[in-house]
Amino acid sequence: MVDGKAFADAPALAVLELLALDSPPGHFQELLDRARRENLPREPLEELERATRLALKIQASSHQRRQRESIMADLVNTVHDMTIPYDPDTLLKVITSRARRLLGFDMAYISLRRPGGGWYVHSSDGDTTSLTVGLVVEESQGLGELAHETGAPYWTSDYLNDERIPHGEQLDAVVRAEGLHAIMVVPIRQSGVSIGALYGADRVVRHFTPDEISFMRYLADFAAVALEKARLLERSRKEIVELESEGVRAQDTIARLRQLSGALASLVGLVLGGGDLHELVKAAAGALDAGLVVSDGCGRTLARAGEPPGLDGARRRDAALESHAAGGPVEIAPNVWAAPVGAGEERGLVLLRAGRELTEDERDFLASVGRAVALLLAVQRSTAVAEGPLRDEFFAGLLTDATQPPGQLARQAYRLGLDADAPHVVVVARPEGGEHGKAVVWSSSYAYRSSGLMKVHEGDIVLLLPGTDASAVARAVSGELSPLLAAPVTVASAGPAASLASVAQVYQEALRCFDALLALDGAGSAASIDDLGFLGLLLSDDHDVDGFVASVIGPVLDHDAERATRLAATMEAYFAAGSSPTRAAGGLHVHPNTVTRRLERITELLGPGWQQPERATEAQLALRLLRARDVLRRRREAVLGRREAVTDAQDTVGSGPESLRP
Hints:
alpha+beta, Beta-Lactamase, 5-stranded antiparallel beta sheet
């Protein structure tokens, strides 16, 4: 327990001592009980109770993070074991054993589809009776039937007492004999069809967490890829043996089968080794001697190699629907194929353009490419989750302008995969309805893929993304996030930041841009501070007057400078005369037709609409800024001229007496 003096002087510090020692939760309760027994005053007691609650929350969060990291390490080791060339039966036993150990189940087992219908238990680990392996489960019975129908995980904390499940007498008898209560099932699918299911069960009532369900799903998807690899290798071996036994000289076919088998093993190795998506796509395109492009669920291109098919957005969406509906590769045009990307929460599309017809083996390989891409994206997302606290802490320091030496910033950025020397744009986004949690998950994945950072800061989603065009970055974020949520998203941006040290300043500009959008009734739109015109000029920190004037009336000023015309003066007179060409002509001492021709020329230079209220306001502001700068320049020149005149006079007076001296 804690030191008595520390408890008496500062009870809340006693909680920190327990937290630093990673004490069991019971010690915190004992500390509270002691405080109540010793009649601690009300305010210190309330402080102690609040500190205890926060400490227990921190301890639980730390435990959950360590558990997640441990499971991820075991998951990577499990997937690595699946790459060993097992035969299918042995591989299923390895998967069963690993699933039980990975998530701490009392029992794990795998069921496979029977040729005549129904399912049977192929392998089991942790069973205590002889009834499990070989057990036949009729269709429309059991928790697995729900998973097969929907293609999604199902679970229950107490199987026999759950009325949602279609029970069967024989199946319930086995569950009762094994003493099982909590059961989770995840379908194992290939080409969109369930070929089996992976089960995990406990002999006590257990409520599964979202992390456990997600890891179980990833394990089932890894198992599907491993089984596909084993099936392809087994099929290759059989075909090679058949060809050689029949004396058929088909060396090209044999070499092709071996090449595809080796290429598939390489893809799995890239996934396990943390390879880049571009490397995986390049390897797959080389194996198929074709052009490939991979896009995400929103149609955004993630990677490409060779000369992929040039499909527009609408045709690409149709191809995604067709391939996902078919559950495998489909030919959408002559020698153009689409394969679905799907594992866990990852969704997308692989498009291929070949110069010839694909063989059956090559189509199977293309399906495996789609699964490998999905698994790589899932691994990258899991890596982003594991690095989340470090990335959050680093980004929070950038946003709050925490002073750090440039060298230290660069080293931290390098460890997180950021380019400290590249320009970055700050984006602030807020969904106007829809699922905020879904927006956060997408933003985290988007930032990781873009080599940027994401953080939920003061209720808003804040992104730091590489780029120089803040407006284009804002539109890109809005264009992908809004359709995903089926709801508008307000997106504001600023930048680029010249360095990581100036991110906090750019973030403040993005916040001011965001507030301006809301004030202008622009909720649900996307804009940068440069898009706000003169409002952006007022909100920005650098007040780029020259840039603003050039963006509004630059073509008119260039025309006046090149041809010695007076278009800018005509605009000034026109606005001063209340947009009346006749009165403007009087002020300029020219004929009204001259003003009309000049206005037509201005329209050619600035485009139609420059006289509309919004653009006219910006034009008048630009002209006033130009005139104010000209007045200030003349005054400065006049002051300098007077100073030079005074200096010359003093020099003349000072030299007179000297000339009279002998």
